[in-house]
Amino acid sequence: MDAADRALVGQLLAPTGELLWVDDEAALDAVTAMSGSGPAYVFYFIEAMTEAGMEMGLSPDQAQRLAIGTFTGASALAHSATEPPSVLRDSGRSPIAYSSGTGTHVPGVAGSSGNSWR
Predict the structure, then answer these.
(1) Would you state the pLDDT for residue 104?
(2) Within 10 A of 53 (CB to CB), how many other CB atoms are there?
């Protein structure tokens, strides 16, 4: 496909979301797996965060709003940041919490590292 055709396709598809070109047609399976199945994993995680919030005493509405807001904010930060997600994940740790292994996300992230969901 030449540059003019790519530009035309880009114009046509731009309103549907982000356009990603791949050089090898074989990569389309991976694109489909990530963009087609990925949202289900995000929704599953939001559901789990909502349930955890409710177990900690939040109302269902509060827990869901916080879970969705967390994903919205983290996604916006990941989209605009120059650092990779692994650096963003670690940047939430204060120096004291990082060195002592305390804080709220240090044990959770460390505990999930060996789980099969990653």
Answers:
(1) 56
(2) 19
Give the DSSP letter of residue 81.
-
**Cβ-contact 81, 95 below 8 angstroms:** no
Top-level CATH class of 12-80?
A: mainly alpha
44-97 confidence digits (pLDDT tens): 999 999 999 999 999 999 999 999 999 999 899 989 989 998 888 877 655 554
Q: Tell me which long-range contacts 40-44 makes (C-beta under 8 A, separation of at least 24).
A: 42/71
Global pTM? Answer: 0.68
Cβ-contact 18, 10 below 8 angstroms: no
- Sketch the domain layout of the chain as residue ranges: 12-80, 84-118
Confirm if 103 and 91 have CB atoms less than 8 A apart.
Answer: no
Residue matched to tokens 């967390």: 70
